Amino acid sequence: YSNLTREAYGAVREEADARGFIITGHTPEGVRGPGVPFEAPFDIAFSEILDDGFETIEHVESIVWHGLSDREDEVAARALTVQIAEAGVPVTPTLLAFHNLWRVADTQGAALTRPETDLLNPLVQATETDMYEYWSSAPAGPTAERDAFHLRMTRWLHEAGVTLVAGSDAGIFTNVPGLSLVEELELMVEAGLSPFEALKAATDAPARVLEREGLDGCAREGCAADLVLYACDPLADISCLHAPEALIRAGEWLNAEDLMALRESARHHNLERTQENVIGGLAAQGVDVSALGIN
Questions:
Q1: What pLDDT sits at residue 293?
Q2: d(CA 35, CA 38)
Q3: To pair with 66 at 20 to 30 A between CA atoms, which of 60, 97, 181, 271?
Q4: Per-residue confidence (pLDDT) for residue 36, from 0 to 100
Q5: How far apart are CA 208 and CA 214, in angstroms?
Q6: Is 65:1 a contact under the CB 8 Å cutoff?
């Protein structure tokens, strides 16, 4: 994660190597001291991470922050995309994560209650109160400019040949599970990918990155028998993905009515049960749950 110290990051890498684990996530910066990043460099340079064997690097937002010292510099950005491409490290842009911050700022908080947000876990919402308040009063102009730069950065990564993997950061802030992935693909198309390329970023590319090629992200004999069926053509209009006609999952057929019923059931939460499960699980691991701000 971003704020790992150099020592902690080194320990993570050693343990991962010893256990045969992969590493992925935000690029660690080290201790974020005074003046970082505008007046002082990061403790761990972004370039140090590129040969550390990350399965994916998460968030264009984090790459702009760490790799460009939060500067919207096209020349530096294009040079950085070439470095990432040459290192062969896939990137998960998760454009929606910051885009939703802009949505909330732009609507002064109204986007927090837009359609489908009732699918969010109420426990997550309870822990996000401070973030909701901050972004509801944040200036929309600078946030919109940064959001637009993230789109351009994604296009430059794509043009440089970086493997892009679709991710959604679903479940946190106001990123609605399921819907957030479709919205992410729409943003990738807005960034400059074709609908076909965006669909590959959610199917074929993850399968290759996760070394599940030939099992996932494909539709032929021997592949996992999960298919989403549409009456429209997402290659012509990516927003078609909002309206599946049916789903075949593990051999089970679910029609549009079945899918709607599943979505409706997700609106009925049990906050008490969720809270007990989460806090109980964390406490069993010795985690101090007081920081969550809930009892």
A1: 65
A2: 6
A3: 181
A4: 93
A5: 9
A6: no
Helix (H, G, I), strand (E, B) or coil at 252: strand
Evaluate whether 64 touches 151 at the Cβ level (below 8 Å): no
| Bond into 37 cis (ω within 30) | yes
The 8-class DSSP code of residue 174 comes to T
User: Which residues is 100 bridged to in the sheet?
Assistant: none
Which residue from 148, 228, 144, 214 is spatially nearest to 181, judged by alpha carbons? 228
d(CA 165, CA 55): 11
Cα separation, 175 vs 183, whole angstroms: 9
Within 13 Å and on the Cβ side, how many CA atoms surround 32?
A: 13
* pTM for the model: 0.92
Q: In Å, what is the CA distance from 148 to each residue of 70, 129, 151, 180?
A: 14, 26, 5, 18
So what's the pLDDT on residue 250?
85
Q: State residue 2 phi and psi, 5-degree precision.
A: -55, -45
> Cβ-count burial of 51 within 10 angstroms (0-12 exposed, 13-18 middle, 19+ buried)?
exposed
All structural domains of the chain with their residue ranges: 45-219
Q: Which residues contact 258 (CB under 8 A, 6 or more apart)?
A: 247
User: pLDDT tens digit string along 5-52?
Assistant: 999 999 999 999 999 999 999 999 999 889 999 999 999 999 999 999
Q: Are strands 54-58 and 23-25 parallel, antiparallel or unpaired?
A: parallel
**In this predicted structure, what is the pLDDT of residue 126?**
85
Task: Decide: residue 5, CB within 10 A, 0-12 exposed, 13-18 middle, 19+ buried.
Answer: middle
Average pLDDT rounded to a whole number, residues 243-253: 93
> For 173-197, how does the pLDDT look when each residue is reduced to its tens digit (9 = 90+)?
999 999 999 999 999 999 999 999 9
